[in-house]
Amino acid sequence: QVQLVESGGGLVQPGGSLRLSCAASGFTFSTYAMNWYRQAPGKERELVAAITSTGGNTNYADSVKGRFTISRDNAKNTVYLQMDSLKPEDTAIYYCNAYRRGLIPKNYWGQGTQVTVSS
To answer: What is the pLDDT of residues 8-44, one digit of tens each?
Structure first.
């Protein structure tokens, strides 16, 4: 049974930091690219950060470059999103996603964790 369980969300003041974690199980984690998406109220879900299966390459949305860092630990089947210098516009539900290309692509989602940036 595939599971992606996010944690680490919460309420933080502008300029603060949070670290999101996503614990994976039920599939071969080390063969999947991992992504963090977010969805704010009334907006479409957007890709925030991505990391390849080995962790050798990362990509970020322009809006978070220099502030967010994605990383992974394949020994712990966990992906992280370190979020610094948070802004009110970062407020959203953050979702963990696992993706693997192939004849039949695999795409798994977590349940999401709420991040609220407010004073």
So the answer is: 999 999 999 999 999 999 999 999 999 999 999 999 9
Largest CA distance in the chain: 48
Are the C-beta atoms of 96 and 107 separated by less than 8 Å?
no
CA distances from 72 to 13, 28, 81, 104 (A): 26, 14, 9, 24
Q: Which one, of 25, 41, 84, 32, lies nearest residue 60 by Cα?
A: 84
Q: Could you tell me which residues are beta bridge partners of residue 94?
A: 38, 113
